[in-house]
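Researcher: Here's the sequence for the chain we discussed earlier.
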Amino acid sequence: MSTRALFREDAYRTRCDVTVTAVDEQGIHLDQTVFYPLGGGQAGDAGTLTFADGTVVAIADTRKAKFEGATPDDAIHVAAPDQDAALAKLAVDDRVVAEIDWAQRYRRMRLHTASHLICAVLPYPVDGCSITTDYARLDLATVEPIERDEVEAKLNALIRGAHAVDTEWITDDEMAARPELVRTMSVKPPMGLGRVRLLRIEGVDLQPCGGTHVRNTEEIGTLRIEKLEKKSARPRRLVLDF
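Model: Thanks. This is the structure I predict for it:
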């Protein structure tokens, strides 16, 4: 039932031919997928599964599968509530075309990459984050004052700097020897699988991340800090939007 996570190999790939491996109370399991499952603060993808005869199953969300031996790449595709008729046709070993909502995904890729730039502008531990289609939210563990205009200017300067964005892998042992790479307090990189995926923004930032990202910061476009607030004695919350 294991799923090959094609989105980790190419975040720009929007569709693929797949085989249904199971349909259960969790959702639809596929042998491979371009759909990103909810995790690491990033929302799960929506999209469609299309039969050869044109029948379409609308997918409203994607989440990590829960079964014994499941890995972070194993995903379940959750059908929209009104899909009973189409789902009745779906069976194990069916071949369908999986396609994500690209406009939704690409906004999240841009916002997720921008959140890594914030980690470079404001080098404080991240005490929570959320990457949605509408905004990126980061809670930073600091009591230091944050100047909205200054941070926004630095962020957009990094975006305009057209820094290359790429992924690389290190072993679990290498990850354990470099704890300074982990910037988040609530989400830890998955260990025990032999290797950990890093996101590198050339000359700017390097940290573990399993999310989807653009290839160059210039793709992000101009961003604004929609909200900056003090949540409690410590965290400062930033909300980014276009």
